[in-house]
Amino acid sequence: MATISYHRPGSVAEAARLAAADPDARVIAGGQSVLPAMKLGLLVPSAFIDLAGLPELRGIRMAGGSLSIGAMVTHAAVAESREIRAALPALSDLAEGIGDAQVRNRGTIGGSIANSDPAADYPAAVLALNATIRTNQRAVTADAFFKGLFETDLRAGELITAIEFPIPTRAAYVKFPQPASRFALVGVFLAQTDGRVRVAVTGAAAHAFRLEALEEALARRFVPEACEAVTVPAQRLNSDLHGSAEYRASLIPVLARRAVQRITA
Q: CB within 8 A of 61, min separation 6: which ones?
């Protein structure tokens, strides 16, 4: 059996140094993705770098019209926060629908975004809300962050510290969950701000992405029927035992329509 070291750094700077020094080490935020990957034999880390003891990565606050959420804030905390519920209820609804109670109480928003699972919920919110990902080194725009399957713009030794969400005029998230895992078979997050519309999709491709055809259709006419005229190509979409690429393509405008209905009801 391989020996795995365990580190519990006392600061973000120390955690970043440890991560930069050992490319095979894995940062632990909530552990809800790393541990299952190990059980499947997909990951054999040389060390764990546990961020649980870093209070600087926690906290929820409004600042300059944006909602800032620390990377180590759990899904349960996002779902239950009165501040988030008042400012951005669609994000609370999203968090409330992640996994089960155990996952929500252990998993973190920063860990989910850094992992960039193709079926994770938060990446759709990050893209649709045009969030800024704050790290120990820089600020990364949402459109530049997600690069591929489990791949982001994060560099060696770079850790997410917080995510800043601009407050939209209105927003909604609707997903078609895989029944066993509650991951998104397809999920659509829609946000409207000053007449502009951003639509992001998760679960359908290698990573979350924006769908400009829907954005343009809804910018012209923000009604549920506008989604019906948009045809989503199935090329490059996921196809697996849960659903074909064509099935996922057909779901996207349906879920977008439901999101618009939820917003305009």
A: 67, 68, 83
